[in-house]
Amino acid sequence: MPEFPRNYLQCGRFRPDIAAAALRPLVMGILNVTPDSFSDGGQFASLDLALSHAEQMIADGVDIIDIGGESTRPGAPPVSLDDELRRVMPVVYALRDCGKPLSVDTRRPAVMREVLAAGADMINDIEGFRDPDSLAAVSDSDCAICIMHMQGEPQSMQTAPHYDDLFVEVRDFLRERIDQALAAGIAAERICIDPGYGFGKTTEHNLKLLAWQDELQRVLGFPLLAGLSRKSTIGQITGRPVEQRMAGSIAAALVAADHGACIVRVHDVAETVDALKVWNAARLARRVNTV
Ligand code: 9MG
What we know:
12% strand, binds 9-methylguanine, globular, 42% helix, eight-stranded parallel sheet, 291 residues
């Protein structure tokens, strides 16, 4: 098991155990509150639907709920600050006492400040906190931060992704952002990293990174979050449209777990939790050589 700053992730009011997660990764459930969400067609855009979806995820064994008000689907139109706040804030207020850590997926420092003041426990920034004000927005709190690698911008990132050295470029980007976060006063136990599957990456890039992610996690020394659920790579491999990618996504979550992921970000919580339980039980049995 890689050495992490602590055996927990400091996540606002919570400290999920990532030493245990090295056995079974934490499951982060996706709660999109975008009308144009690429995988749920805006199904959870209204507050009531979002809350009942969250309740179901909790019943299904979710460990962290990731709320997002901006679609990050390739080519998705940008959302205004007001619209993002209008979508996300009521959900954060309604769920803050649900007993699970609340993560908010945002690139905007203004949104980070508002959701942290409202009780969010984690900020998931697909830009890796590159906005000059973003680290200041989170530094005074106790929230966890997920630093993700992305090449380019969501509008254009899948046009022609190219790397001279995929592993080195992703590693060096994450290392530089980790150093900036630490320099901004963010404690090491608050940080997790993410190779950013599908963000400026072809299927081949994603599969290579998946094979290398345990090495990435080991050399950087921070817990790794993997998000492959329903992404186009799953569609390319299986030939399935987005609404038929559950089995492929569960397989991807298991592979990510097998390659050391501490957190998997998924749409299908119940199915992924069950699959990880079976994977974990089989793995533990392999270690015990007496029957
Ligand atoms: C918001 N979002 C969409 N995909 C993601 C991924 O793979 N990782 C993280 N951290 N966030 C994501």
